[in-house]
Design a protein that fits this description.
8 helices; purine biosynthesis; alpha/beta; binds glycinamide ribonucleotide; EC 2.1.2.2; phosphoribosylglycinamide formyltransferase activity
């Protein structure tokens, strides 16, 4: 089984979804480590309770050496794939290059729409009828790497950023493990999930 490291900064609900999915007998990955940039991230408690090894690094204290330490940890644990799950830190290009094709992220919008922070606010402000979630390869272009999987979530007329985020999160929890499994199985057959969304996304202008 491929060894996945999940990187978190907070709650860790997508991390939990990745761990739970890994318990299926035919799952091609195991979560070998949970780490992140903030030692007090809530997700660590879940990871520990689930018996997953945790490595709490403090990026603020470590400064530039954070990325070197992280790389050492990942190498020491023979990690095959890095999965960012609510990891709220811009990754230096050198680190991205080291994990080219082996680092994925989940973003709560239909990329390329609404890259960056506050994507739910941006979605509502734009009057989009659909939001959703995207799993993509991490590339030097933030939130701009190759899309591996997407799922749509309809916007409701009375949605607030919080209510929309809550429903998108339900979709994220299914999409993330599904997409990681498909990617690791190298089927690269994401048509079932990307076709419809691909057309929709292409018909809409890209936003910042
Ligand atoms: C998720 O909605 C994730 O898509 C988003 O943060 C949330 C983390 O929740 N990520 C980003 O916005 C990345 N730019 P979680 O900690 O419960 O998984």
């Amino acid at each position: 089984r491929s060894r996945v490291a999940v990187l978190i900064s907070g709650r860790g609900s997508n991390m939990a979804a990745l761990i739970y999915a890994s318990r299926a007998e035919d799952c091609p990955y195991e979560v070998a480590m949970v780490t992140g940039d903030k030692p007090d991230a809530d997700g660590f408690e879940i990871a520990r309770a689930e018996g997953v090894a945790t490595e709490a690094l403090n990026a603020r204290e470590l400064g530039a050496s954070y990325w070197t330490r992280l790389q050492q940890l990942l190498e020491a644990a023979s990690i095959d794939l890095v999965a960012l799950a609510g990891f709220m830190r811009i990754i230096p290009e050198e680190f991205v290059a080291k994990w080219d094709g082996r680092m994925v992220n989940i973003h709560p919008s239909l990329l390329p729409r609404h890259k960056g922070l506050k994507s739910h606010e941006a979605c509502l402000a734009a009057g989009d009828k659909f939001s959703g979630a995207t799993v993509h390869l991490v590339s030097p272009d933030v939130d701009g790497g190759e899309i591996l999987g997407q799922v749509e979530v309809a916007v409701l007329s009375n949605d607030t950023p919080d209510s929309l985020a809550e429903r998108v999160l339900i979709a994220e929890h299914q999409l993330y493990p599904d997409t990681v499994i498909r990617y690791l199985n190298r089927t690269r057959d994401f048509d079932w999930i990307t076709n419809k969304v691909g057309e929709l996304a292409l018909a809409l202008p890209e936003t910042g």
